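Hey,

The postdoc asked me to send both predictions to you directly instead of through the lab channel. I've kept everything plain text so nothing gets mangled by the mail client. Protein one:
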Amino acid sequence: MKESRLSNIWFINLGVLLIALLLVAKLGYLQIMHGEVYRDKADAQYLIPSNGFDRGQIFFQEKSGRTIAAATVVPDYTLAIDPSKIVDKQGLADKLLAFIKFDRADFIARASHVGSQYEEIAKHLNEDEITGVQSLHAKGVILKKDKKRFYPGIKAAAQVLGFVGSNGETVAGRYGLEKYYNDTLTREGTGGSTSFFADLFLKPGAAILSDRAKQGDIVTTIEPTVQGFLERVLQQDVLEKYKAASASGIIMDPVTGAIYAMGTAPAFDPNNFSKEKDASVYSNPLVDGIYEMGSIVKPLTMAAGLDAGVVTAQTTYDDKGFLIINKKRISNYDGRGRGVVPMQIILNDSLNTGAVFVMNKLGKDSFRNYMKAFGLGEETGIDLPNEGVGNIKNLESPRDIEYATASFGQGISMTPIETIRALAALGNGGLLVTPHVVARTEYGLAPAQNFVANPGKQVIKKETSTEITRMLTEVVDKALMGGTLKMQHYSIAAKTGTAQLVEDGGYSESDYLHTFFGYFPSNNPRFIVFLAVKNPRGEKYASHTLSLPFMQIAKFLINYYDIPPDR
């Protein structure tokens, strides 16, 4: 009996200890994670709480590792009145106008509504306005405290972040990270009243501490200073300068796939997204847009030829300036032949006939296999919604012409994110990485979940990566803008592209997509940059529209990250 009684006492003591630990954990959790909720309840002494909206935060991450808010929740106040309690309408209007701007005549009319007990006067009041109204201690005045989603950076990375909106039934993320990570950012039951003691009876102990396990905050790889610089260049030096339809760019680590910046101009303000007349501005063309990329595909073709051993940098061919394939004429951009030239000149002068020569040396099957290995025609797996998939169906055609045009970037299409991933393999040793914009998800008291990339698939040999990088570096040093962009102490590998845009099933005679990519320092790249401009006016080729903006970005990144010289 003694042993049984002693066992019962130990069991009771253990139960009391467990309950005490749960109480302490719950109190700590409430103080740390939900202090705002209780501050709201304190505010209710003089404010009417309303929507109970709450949502996880999204952060940018500076190069130092410090995070700054990109999307957060802030108080939002509304001024309303109860006409049944107002005696001096004109006097109250004049007192309120000392702190808030509104239409006085409309106020008098609303204050005169017989039988009404609630009329809204002004929305989105700031803290100073609220303090002023409260100081009046006026009867019939109602202050309603809501919460709203707020984006401190205004337009910064707007298409990456997205926004929160209602479809009439639910409030949720509608684009960008807000949509992709909606389940993580959503806060369930923040307005609930279930007590901890009720939870003890209704839930297992572990569930009490983990019922919000999936609710977290997002820390992105977006570096705010880099993002801001990219967006200024796109807006001022590309979109406005060339009166273009749009300009966009990506800055990525070619080794890890982490995206430092991703932007499109024109952008939008997610704080006032409903004011946009064209809803297409909400989407991210760098992820869901599908385009024929033009000559920036030529380095992929050349790398495939080098990797398969069918050409070397010293291999030559006779360039006559044009080819006839399946009764179709393919010409160089200037129609001019260069005679017998080595493979380097194909990249230096961006020769269509040369790309076709390399493709023919590979053979259609091998060429197709390499393009698929580079990830063309498939999703990258980037953590953003609505990712598009390129179209390389022409590489299943029996016709030679489809393979010929594909070798220089026409007739096949891809997304910009698909493109930069493929091109990154040229400089990172031949690996196909996973592009991503989230570094980690933080779960309050629980451990953070860091992004862990899958090991990159080897798509070309490391030796091939070294050789194609050397060739692309020579493009910058000797050919791009006549070699005037060469940096004395830093090597840069790059290539331009110009492609006709497809409209109504055919190629436009007036609309073009200019593209540019480059990575640096060439032999140990820290950054790869992709730029695109749609329908620029006044310049025909990407070398003229995007070379200087690219060099601005490259020099900024070298200085900002204090990259040591490599030559």
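Protein two:
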Amino acid sequence: MARDWSTFSVETDLVYRKLSKNKKGSPIVYLGVAGGDISHPRLRLNQGRTPLVSPFGLSLFDPDSKGRHNFDIALEDPELLAFFTALDARNVKEAIRNKETWFKPGVDDGQIASMYYPLVQRDEKQQGKFPPQLRIKVNIDPGDRQVNVTRTSDDFSQYWRMTPDDLRAKFLRVFVNIDVSCVWFQKMQFGMTLLLTDVNILSAPKKKELDFDWGGDQPKLAGAGSVPPPIDPEPPASNGVSVLVGAAKQAYS
């Protein structure tokens, strides 16, 4: 089950396992949770009923990767931004500590830091016009840890099963769970993979219950034949949800 990101310490809860190889033979470092849990850390990124914003929706990052896409989240919450900035810093620190096994001989600390591809992407050229983005990977093909997509009504009373194609719209208001999956390596670069496991569009999953903590009663699965309302990225004025969708649209236009 996913845990709230604010209860997870990047310094004491995150475990980096020994360097190994994935199915394709590429070097990889899998991650775990302190205390013997062999599963990846799974984090819930939302606080209560406040959604996050995906400015660009689902995007293909590598044509050769087939079903693997990007799904960026705007880090408008200063505390969430600080959390993932700290995670970036921990990754660099861990890489330097393990440089003898993770990299070829002769690579110094400065080179390692410059090789790291951060999770938090900032557009320095725009001088703060764009909020920092969190880069998340998404599997959309069936059978390959496919992302679980749902849609909840604005009053959180019912939900519907959706498909990854429903994530292609821009400026979606979403609730997100991720796996902190692994550290990857390429020729002159390395970074961390965050994998989208569950995403709820503000509105059911293949699972029996939704794994989001909204407080109060959980929404019920809509009956057969029920059709979800159209996805409108603009929040209704009366729903009480505070999210900078309008400001985001202006920033990304």
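Summary for protein two, as requested: The helical segments are 78-97, 99-102, 109-115, 245-252.

Thanks,
C.
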